[in-house]
Structures are given as C-alpha cells and as structure tokens.
Amino acid sequence: MTPAAGYRGYQRIGENVTKGIPDIHEAIDCYREIKQGKYGDIGKVMEGPNQWPENPQEFKELMEEYIKLCTDLSRKILRGISLALAGSPYEFEGKMAGDPFWVMRLIGYPGAEFTNGQPENDIGCGAHTDYGLLTLVNQDDDKTALQVRNLGGEWISAIPIPGSFVCNIGDMLKILSNGVYESTLHRVINNSPQYRVCVAFFYETNFDAVVEPLDICKQKYPGGRGGCQVFKRAVYGEHLVSKVQTNFAM
Predict the structure, then answer these.
(1) How many structural domains does the chain have?
(2) Which of 71, 158, 163, 174 is most buried, most CB within 10 Å of its CB?
(3) Residue 224 belongs to a domain with what CATH number?
(4) Which pTM was predicted?
(5) Which residues, other chains included, contact 43 with Cβ-Cβ below 8 Å and sequence gap of 6+?
(6) How far is CA 122 from CA 14, 22, 67, 102, 248, in A?
(7) Is 12 contained in some domain?
(8) In a domain, 8, yes or no
C-alpha cells in the first residue's frame, strides 16, 4: 500500500496509525474503485485499482461476491433504520446513498505475547469511530478482542456470536440522524495467543454526498438526543480522505 496506489493493498504491522500510535495489525485494504477524474481533486487521492492477492486464484471473485452481499444487507438494515426514524424506507438512498461508496479491510491481529502468564495487551487497533454509515464486522468466533465503549464510559467486550455480524454505527449516520444514532467508539485488544482475523465491510454514503441531518430528524429530534447538540454538514469524500491521509505511517 502506498499513497500513489490510492491507499489500496497490503499494509504491514504498525503501518496503520490511530491518534499517532501504531496499531498492531496487518491488513489488505480495498475501496470501491473510482473512475479517474470523477470526483475532481478530492477523489484523486483514492483513485487506483484494488490490489488483490494472486493466490488463491479465486480470491478476487469471492471477495467481490462477498462485497455484493454485504452491500445488499447494509441497504436493508438502513431501510429499517429509516423506518425507525419515522421516515420512508428510502431516506438513505438517492443523492445520499443511492450510489454508495464502500471500504473493505481484511485484518490480521498477531497473537498476544505473555509475560508471567499475563498478556502484554498490545493495542491491535486504537479507539476510533468509523467514518461512514454502517460497518459489518465478521470476526473469528472463538476470540474476543473487539471492545465498545458504553454511555457510562466503560469498555465492554463484543463477544462473538457464531453466524452473526457486529454492526457499528458510523459518523455519517450520526449526522444524518441528528445524533439519535451514536457513532460507536471501539477498539481491538487481542489477548489470545492465537492470530485473529476480522473482515470489516464499511457501507458509506455516495462519495460526493453532502451530509447533514435529515429533515425528518431535524423535525422530530431537534438538537439530537442531548437536546442541544448541533451537527454540522460534512462532505463524505472529504471526511474519508482527511482520515486516510493521517492513518498510515508512510
């Protein structure tokens, strides 16, 4: 992975950085491919083909099918959220997410090293929120490593449930819902001696979407859940690029 490759490809352990601290994981990062020049200067940063491993030979085909399935599932989840906000099922489509961008990360976390029988607690991925609408996290069934901070400020483990996804709320859904849905602060600490694998699929708005609270949310939830919070508009592509450019030690 390099900036010249549109931040696509393989990153070594420690190349991903959260708040200035290297994360102890390696990954293959893929993004929806962008046609050259489609989004002007801001999109240029993310242009380039995905770099798929040549072995196994069917890897690219399988991943593209997985992306399609996750895209369809995410759209259905958002239609349910839209109904829950008292809107139509399609509030998150059209100009907002009718042509959704996506990100997929295949992440490997080395097993923990132990000293005197205790894990050294290397941070596999530091505390952060996700950038878009929803994240579908497909994690190993037998290793508990993902932690989420609750409203009381406590870190609780997202214990894997076989056959399920963990679904995170992202920054753009927090803005669109006027704060009704909270962007989830989470981190990864792999205390297992075994290597842990996670496939994270990030379902986003349109790359060039101007994101601000939906009319239904401004009317029904003025000021968001806290009663006084104001959410400024954001352009998703600009938000993504600002994060990507500070997330890698290159």
Answers:
(1) 1
(2) 174
(3) 2.60.120.330
(4) 0.92
(5) 34, 37, 207, 208, 237
(6) 11, 10, 30, 29, 18
(7) no
(8) no
Are 2 and 250 in contact by the 8 Å Cβ rule? The answer is yes
Sequential pLDDT tens for the chain (250 residues): 888 889 999 999 988 888 888 889 999 999 999 999 999 998 999 999 999 999 999 999 999 999 999 999 999 999 999 999 988 899 999 999 999 999 999 999 998 887 766 666 678 899 999 999 999 999 999 999 999 999 899 999 999 999 999 999 999 999 999 889 999 899 999 988 899 999 999 999 999 999 998 888 887 776 655 554 467 789 999 999 998 888 776 5
Is residue 133 in a domain?
Answer: yes
Instruction: Indicate whether 34 belongs to any domain.
Output: yes
Backbone φ and ψ for 144, nearest 5 degrees, come out as: -95, 115
The one-letter amino acid code at 177 reads: S
